[in-house]
User: Fold this.
Amino acid sequence: MEADLHYQFPPLIEPSELAKRVKALAGEIVAALGTEPIIVVALLKGAFVFTADLVRALSQQGISSEIEFLIASSYGAGTYSTGQVTMHWLGKSSLAGRRVLLIDDILDTGLTLSKVKEQILKENPASCHVVVLLDKPSRRNVQMTADFVGFPIDDHFVVGYGLDYAEQHRDLPYVAILPPEARSSGS
Ligand code: IMP
Ligand code: MG
Assistant:
């Protein structure tokens, strides 16, 4: 554990591991896509931290990005999902003919990313690749794979580095498994 950091929860992925993996991921993306400019579509709110780090790593490795944001949320209470996803763009450039890199925090059931990717493909981009920081393959219930994955993880509910529990803990600079005592107690 990094000695100089205060950890509210035991870290699953520490800041230094995140930084190292994001840099390596940028290298994998450059190796696969080349260095022509891309247009990033980042899903809010969860992907905001990962996106900020990844686009800077990509820039350092020679890919420049335009950045668009999309608020995507799936209907349904708790862990139950009805299969519908609402999407709201914050302004938007045309994606036609563009090289799109779709970024999310975590690939869980796959519903959100599969619906968003489907919408993006309707705009006839030149390409659409998906990158996620975390992947929980055991939770998948629609067919969806990411082209680039930061860390595959087991089926735990995680927070930090953009990921929330009831809008809390997005600001943690590391990823942690949400401890049972931190659930629905308001803490
Ligand atoms: P999917 O549509 O089931 O793949 O869900 C993706 C979304 O669910 C992510 O973008 C997150 O907002 C949320 N999510 C899934 N698993 C977790 C988790 O472990 N912690 C925090 N949010 C999660
Ligand atoms: Mg969320």
Q: What stands out?
A: Residues 46, 74, 104-112, 157-159, 163 surround inosinic acid (ligand 1) (CB under 6 Å).
